[in-house]
Design brief:
The complex is a heteropentamer, with two copies of chain A (240 residues), one copy of chain C (232 residues) and two copies of chain D (234 residues). With 240 residues, chain A is of the alpha/beta class. Chain A is built from nine helices and ten strands. In chain A, the strands form two sheets. Chain A has a six-stranded mixed β-sheet, with helices on both faces. A four-stranded antiparallel β-sheet of chain A has the order 2-1-4-5, covered by helices on one side. The mean pLDDT of chain A is 92. In chain D, helix 5 crosses helix 7. In chain D, 48% of the residues are buried. Classes of the chains: A alpha/beta (240), C alpha/beta (232), D mainly alpha (234). The complex binds adenosine-5'-triphosphate (2 copies) and magnesium ion (2 copies).
Amino acid sequence: MIEVKGLCKSFGDLKVLKGIDDSINKGKVVVVIGPSGSGKSTYLRCINYMEEATQGQILIDGVDITDKSIDINEIRQKVGMVFQHFNLFPHMTVLENITLAPIQVKKMSEEEAKQIAYKLLDKVGLKEKANEYPNKLSGGQKQRIAIARALAMNPEVMLFDEPTSALDPEMVKEVLEVIKELAQEGMTMMIVTHEMGFAKEVGTRLVFMDEGKILEQGNPKEVFENPKEERTKLFLSKVL
Amino acid sequence: MIEVKGLCKSFGDLKVLKGIDDSINKGKVVVVIGPSGSGKSTYLRCINYMEEATQGQILIDGVDITDKSIDINEIRQKVGMVFQHFNLFPHMTVLENITLAPIQVKKMSEEEAKQIAYKLLDKVGLKEKANEYPNKLSGGQKQRIAIARALAMNPEVMLFDEPTSALDPEMVKEVLEVIKELAQEGMTMMIVTHEMGFAKEVGTRLVFMDEGKILEQGNPKEVFENPKEERTKLFLSKVL
Amino acid sequence: GCSKSEDVIVMGTNATFPPFEEIQGNEIVGFDVDISKIIAEKLGKTLKVEDMEFNQLLGAVASGKVDFVAAGMTVDEERAKQVDFSDNYFASKQVIIVKEDNDNIVEAEDLVDKKVGVQLGTTGDIFVSGYTSEENGGTIEVIQFDKGALAVAELSLGKIDAVVLDEEPAKKIVANYEGVKIIEAPFINENYALAVKKGNTELLEDINEILAEIQADGTYDALCEKYFGKTE
Amino acid sequence: MFSYETMIAFFNTFIERKYYMTLLSGIQETLLMTAIATVIGLIIGIFVAIIQVSEFPRKLKWLEKILKGIAKLYVDIIRGTPAIVQVSFIWLVVLADVVMARPVVGGISFGINSGAYMAELIRAGIQGIDKGQMEAGRSLGLSYFQTMKLIIIPQAFRQMLPALVSEFIVLIKETAVIGMIGGRDIMRAGNIMMSDTGSFIWPILIVTITYLVLTSTFTMIMRVIEKRMNKGRF
Amino acid sequence: MFSYETMIAFFNTFIERKYYMTLLSGIQETLLMTAIATVIGLIIGIFVAIIQVSEFPRKLKWLEKILKGIAKLYVDIIRGTPAIVQVSFIWLVVLADVVMARPVVGGISFGINSGAYMAELIRAGIQGIDKGQMEAGRSLGLSYFQTMKLIIIPQAFRQMLPALVSEFIVLIKETAVIGMIGGRDIMRAGNIMMSDTGSFIWPILIVTITYLVLTSTFTMIMRVIEKRMNKGRF
Ligand SMILES: Nc1ncnc2c1ncn2[C@@H]1O[C@H](COP(=O)(O)OP(=O)(O)OP(=O)(O)O)[C@@H](O)[C@H]1O
Ligand SMILES: Nc1ncnc2c1ncn2[C@@H]1O[C@H](COP(=O)(O)OP(=O)(O)OP(=O)(O)O)[C@@H](O)[C@H]1O
Ligand SMILES: [Mg+2]
Ligand SMILES: [Mg+2]
């Protein structure tokens, strides 16, 4: 599904990713953890080309997206992304947020796009908010709408960058529930998170990053109980 | 020296001081402590008329400064004030900072003002900084200059509002030393501080304020060891 | 600021009216300036020239900002209500300027429904703005410029159809532009005079006297020769 | 000059010669010019601002350079010269061979002038929008220009609306120099009255009050818009 | 119009009739006017700004109200009307009976105009100075106005310097309308050349370039000042 080969990324002189190799199979849920600044966000952003890789290859369904001749907007349709700060479009209603890309990018009819939107709103439990503006929603509701918005493009992979860390504690659960449900339905996902309990529960594989590299990986439960690397131990001792 | 009778101060609807009675005798050092927002700064600022009292009287050497016909600039010459954030004049050298008020307000000759300034700079141990601009000084040095600046007007009382709380820990001592020396020379002083050790050492009397009132007072050592009020105990348990 | 001192006399003009007045280098020169200099000299005063928009001249003399106006100003009833005019010192007429290849406009009546440029507040402006055709009651579309030259400029660009200006400045200006010509058709005849504040008879009489003097002693003819290359 | 008689005399003439019509058509011309200028300025401003903030794909870097160079030249020249010079230039040189209604030419000229200033406002507005908005748009598969058009500009625009109305007010005032090329705006209406009556104070007072009424009306509109914005839907 | 011959013809006339002198004295007049306007604007601006930010002692509240009212009226009228209307008003009405060099009148008029805009800059500058500075000054026994003069204004002034230079640049451009009341600035020099030669493009180009050189020179000066400020003594 996704194959990452020798991925490097620098910002000017700062080397942020220093050679990442990984492959994510269809239907798997990869949870990425690691200290702040270790490059987790950058890794995710390279995968949907929000950042241009400095070196290495990223193949999605066998297509190398680092190839200059690729139409990046097509790739992005396959890869949904959910951000820490939701990034809903404040000047559009919930419904417009969700239908925008299907109509503009997929050239779907408004009718069809709305149908899909309502289905997704039902899924995230916010059908009654269709005509609200984002500023009327709570953080948890916003994030669920953001997930629905990404799903509306019917992506093959979903990337989550700390989807719950900007939320008040009482709203974390409702968002995690939605993601969990997606996992159960077999969506391929990469999730950067600090919610270790959640990581253990939904992750089919855990990736621990440090200083731009994957330092350790494996079954989440095993890594949590038996970290091999010193750094992993240190990190887990702080966050668990 | 200073007599405070039924001092009240409101900002709009907010009652900050709710009736303070106290008298500070010549040569005494009153240390004011209390939780944040209890009105300590406001109390001090009323004494040199930075804030106008809503009700009550403040007599300095028998003169009621709340009387509207009083020339406030004359009163202020008797009362020096040192602020948490130093408030040195950044566009003037250290020497100019110190000589400004004597020349402008006391109409002293520049010569004379400079002589006094050098004496005071010697006292605070910063003679060699006379021609520097404030931005070249450390926090502790700035505060010592601020003290010298206030002393240059030869005040009868000195007010200190948390003079060390904006300082890096390693600079607190040099400022406290200067204040201690002033105390030994018999300067009348009111000091708001969170430095309990210092309070114990130099304070002739400790005043504990809470919610705009003086809740408890007495010899610093006694109050620290044997607070009578529950609130005082609670406060001291947190800060000691 | 200095208030007017006794030995200075201020002449108001609009230095865009060659050869009566124009700016050359840094100086305002011209027929009116020379006459004014003579007047000042004979009155034993120094001349100060104030250059302003033509349309502000009447107000300026009425308010005392200037002592008199010498600006190739045509004597006119309306104006005479606001200022006192001296004796006439120059006979002029209004002319129509058109593009060289324009044979359709030959007299005032032909200007109806055309875009016609004038200098704001001049006789030409007053005439054209108030013009109503005898035949069909049509009027002229007037565009009022601060400077006659700018009107001719726009004519040469084809932005307007004709310009109505005083004859002498029209000759000077037309010489600077390619492709425009003056129509020799007879048009309003008029007289230029100097203007003083209403009721300032003292100055008015002095001016009239001096004007008569220079006409008698040949100074005036010499000036005409210098500026117009002809004698009246 | 302030005397009762001169006032009566002036206002008699004012009625008699229908100067109110002159004034009215002056107001019309001023507003028409200002409206045209605002629209043109806005269009130019949006284009220039987008050019200024855009990062072109690598293949088109040369185009980016050229466009950015032109934008910079345009902004520098406009901001470095008086509006009246620009208007004269456009009227007498650029549009020399074009016959066009004067308010339209004025509107175009002032629009070209205003574009440089609006570009600055719009650029600041665009850069004030959270970067996350662009990222969210792109991550959904929208192109850079789609995201700009559908997501960034509408938001930036709402935030800038008060500043743009204020630019409109500036234009009402700036256009007062159009008389220099024969325009017949409010200021010119005053000039005509001055020239005909020889009275300065009353025409100037009328002109002053007219401008004040116009600008304060639009200032009020701006305040209302600002208030609406503050408690707006987002 | 752009042809080689007309260019040669124009520049021959340029030399022959000493238009460079006209231009030079135009530059002089523009700069003189701008300088006078800046000084006057600065003085007015400081006064108005102080009135706007001051809190008078209780006894003088009535005076505060009057002064603040006047300041507001002044600012509103100036910001609500075109500069050219103000200049005309001052020249033709206020200073009607005064004989004064035109650049001086222009300078005064534009100074009065600029004062309202500078007041805004200065007010912002003053309010940008830490409140502690006023408190420190007052606590030493300095009066409100002593503290303003010796402590607040000098600091505010340094911070505002770039903005004030930029206002100077704005004035260089704004004064280009002085030709409308007979001034002989750069723009008017261009007009004279146009009238005399019948050529538009060359005079306008010369005028444009002259303004560009002036404004960019002062922009450069502003940049230098800004840099100095940033690594300045405080
Ligand atoms: N656009 C950028 N330009 C320059 N440096 C950047 C950029 N984006 C990220 N970095 C740097 O790259 C490093 C890794 O950043 P990244 O956001 O990927 O870390 P992270 O693991 O997601 O951390 P966190 O848990 O705090 O989100 C950091 O040092 C960051 O400062
Ligand atoms: N100028 C003012 N306007 C309105 N409220 C004020 C003002 N100054 C102080 N207050 C309020 O008065 C109360 C007391 O403030 P004050 O600064 O005297 O407390 P404090 O005891 O000095 O606290 P801290 O230890 O945090 O300095 C606070 O609630 C504060 O918000
Ligand atoms: Mg991150
Ligand atoms: Mg305090």
